Amino acid sequence: MIYLDHNATTAPAPEVIAAMLAVLSNGWANSSSQHAAGQESKRTLAAARATVARVLGCKPVEVIFTSGATEANHLAVRGLLAAASPERKRVLFSSVEHAGHLRLARALAAAGVAVDWLPVRPDGTLDLTAAQALIGPNVALVSLMAANNETGVLMPVAEVAALTHAAGAVLHVDATQFIGKLPFNFASFGADAVSLSAHKFQGPKGVGALLLRQGVSLTPQTLGSQERGRRGGTENLPGIVGMAAALDLLGNLGAQAARIAGLRDALESGLKNALPDTHVWCQNVPRLPGTTYVRFGQLSVDVVLQRLDRLGVAASSGAACSSGGSEPSHVLTAMGVPADEALAAVRFSLGSTTTADEIAYLLQELPPLLAPLLCEEELLTAP
Ligand code: PMP
């Protein structure tokens, strides 16, 4: 399989699997237990926390382990809102947040919380002028993703952090697609709380973290003594150790990003040359290195994914969580893209394991399969 769906998930690295197996077979005692085996697990947990903190540029006490980014996002938004002073009750979300996060926003609105939306421009970037007008003194919290999972567009975290802090509010950033793809340092990032998920950077599924700046108040949402009372429940030690191992493997992300962006650019220009009906969204704005979001004329994404499947290539129709549905992507809709174009959206997401040979194979095999379909489409839609 040629795997070009790294934004959906990634394969666990062999070192990650080895580290997890060691804990599953020999280090399975409860880290809250008094006995020697429990104390050994406690030390394993502390060592994993120290690794996570070192790689991500935060203090160990600022790491709250969770079951992934969805839980971290919920803990941040509900927990920061509950801890905000009573006169601050508005919450702002960008209109292109991950589908799960939008559900949370809608649930809060339905429960009577004042929710407002930060819009994006037609090129997929955040509308900072609109953000400036919306971030006022009655805002408790702004929640913004660092990088969009569909378009790959990078959001202006530092600028929004400055606006948010000037208004006396706190900033939560969902960095699920950012961490592992671009250099990250919590101390200089600007956000008060940051969500991440291990399975996006060759770690296991079902584990992630919320990084919470020391001194920022958060009301726990799952009660229990673990994680200093901020997230109850026996820790997923194999998962946590796997996540730490995956972070430890990240290495020089700047160099890796340059290599992947080169492959992504070759893919985009190759597709455009071979199939002039190719349209690439968000091509000229700051993006994740490996993400490309395209349509081939208005060919239905299902048809394209079928042909890709025949070639043994795994790609996606925008957000994996909504694939199978016939709703146009909310991200493209927020950018003002018409539904018929949005329903043709195909996302290729390249990653650390992607090779030049894989891109060359795709460029050689896909255009001959799509060209006749595009001709047919032109004939059908000709006036
Ligand atoms: N936020 C973003 C931006 C994502 O891409 C994802 C995963 N697709 C999530 C949150 C959810 O992460 P998890 O699977 O760890 O719950």
List keywords for this structure.
single chain, 383 residues, alpha/beta, 7-stranded mixed β-sheet, 3-stranded antiparallel β-sheet, 13 helices, globular, binds 4'-deoxy-4'-aminopyridoxal-5'-phosphate
What does this structure look like?
This protein has 383 residues and is α/β, with parallel strands linked by helices. It is 42% helix and 14% strand. It has helices spanning 14-26, 36-56, 69-83, 99-110, 128-134, 157-166, 186-189, 237-248, 253-274, 301-310, 330-334, 339-342, 356-381; strands at residues 2-3, 63-66, 90-94, 114-118, 139-145, 170-174, 193-197, 208-212, 278-281, 291-296, 313-314, 346-349. The chain has a seven-stranded mixed β-sheet with strand order 2-8-7-6-5-3-4, sandwiched between helices. A three-stranded antiparallel β-sheet has the order 9-10-12. A two-stranded parallel ribbon has the order 1-11. Helix 1 runs antiparallel to helix 8 (237-248), helix 2 (36-56) packs parallel to helix 8 (237-248) and helix 9 (253-274) runs parallel beside helix 13. The longest helix is centred in the last third of the chain and has 26 residues, at 356-381. The structure holds 4'-deoxy-4'-aminopyridoxal-5'-phosphate.
Report strand order across the widest sheet.
2-8-7-6-5-3-4
Output the structural class.
alpha/beta
Which word captures the global form? Answer: globular
Q: What Rg do the Cα atoms give?
A: 22 Å
Helix content: 40-55%
